[in-house]
Amino acid sequence: MIGACLESVKWADEIIIADNGSTDKTLEIIRSDKSLESRVKVMKFAEQDFASLRNKAMEEAKGDWVLYVDADERVLESLREEILKQAAPERSEPRPWRVQDDVRLAQDGCSAFAISRKNIIFGKEISYGPYKKDWVIRLFRKKDFEKWTGKVHETPHFRGKLGYTKNSFLHLTHRNVDQFVLKSLEWSKIDAKLRLESNHPKMSGWRFIRILITELWNQGIARRGFFNGTVGAVDSILQAFSMYITYVRLWELQQEKPLEKVYEEIDKKLIESGFKH
Q: How confident is the model at residue 108 (pLDDT cuts 50, 70, 90)?
């Protein structure tokens, strides 16, 4: 995954990788491509939240403009050319594939740009639902950037006006069910903890039923996920499942005694009683 992503941004003056414990042989891929090796810096972290990763990468960036790209995103040619056209000054001589000055973007008066994403979900490009207008703020003039916040769904803060690009990322997500479920399990831990810290009401049976029905309605009907055919139905149900898992984790955290402790006590009593039950 990371190899194709890097290939799509080879035109950049510098590439900074915030590696949060990946297992996709990032260093080997970089070393195998001499055109990348001298311009790529890999920053390794252990279980940092997404906002922290993005902030540390920004601190390392030297350019006037910084573009964030996730490993499952690709910078299409049309987007690359738009960024280069806006970021580079007007010159008579050819100046291919370099983002260095901020003359054109400064003329637009924008300090950051939102970029839409074309989403490939389970192998199919989705045209309805929450993925239709999927904007992410990813291009920043460094001097106007402030910080990212948020442990799960990170939000950028910057001074100045927000602009919108005409062209899009290609987002290759949900490659298979395993990937979706593993990501949901990872994110749900963080999300559940945040909800607990915000004093979310105690979870009960009726809340679980309401959450599941509401999420199915939101994902499939209100956000038109079911209009994407079989893939849309699969994705909508999985999205509802992901939210359901978050609340199950929250319910676990709300217990007076951790469930692991409960099972330890059961084992202890069984041993003491000679396994009478």
A: low
